[in-house]
Amino acid sequence: SPPELTDHLASRGTGKEHWPELLAIVAGDIPRSSGGKVAKGELREQAREIAAHHIDSSNSSSASVPPLGT
């Protein structure tokens, strides 16, 4: 959970500039190539879509997921 993650990072002395701005738990498998390796391009695209949705939500008054560390 976000509070556990921020507590862990703080206890290890990790500076806030290195903390993630957004934590999204996604159901499903990590996309893989035909060779079994992680399909990084597809994973990045999924992350962009999640981040864009979060940004759109945070611009409205109904933002439900605050950024980590706030």
Describe, in plain words, how this protein is organized in 3D:
This protein is mainly α and 70 residues long. The protein is 43% helix and 0% strand. The chain has helices spanning 2-11, 40-59. The mean pLDDT is 82.
Compile the SSE list and pairings.
Blueprint: H1 2-11, H2 40-59
Radius of gyration: 15 Å
| Mean pLDDT across all amino acids | 82
Report the count of strand segments. 0
Shape: extended
Strand count, sense and barrel status of the largest sheet are: none
Helicity range: 40-55%
Q: Enumerate the spans where pLDDT stays under 50 for 5 or more consecutive residues.
A: none
Global structural class = mainly alpha
Strand content: under 5%
Distance between the termini: 14 Å
In N-to-C order, the SSE pattern is HH
In DSSP terms (H or I, runs of 4 or more residues), the helix count works out at 2
Key terms for this structure?
single chain, 70 residues, mainly alpha, 2 helices
Give a concise summary.
This protein is an all-alpha fold and 70 residues long. It is 43% helix and 0% strand. The relative contact order is 0.17.
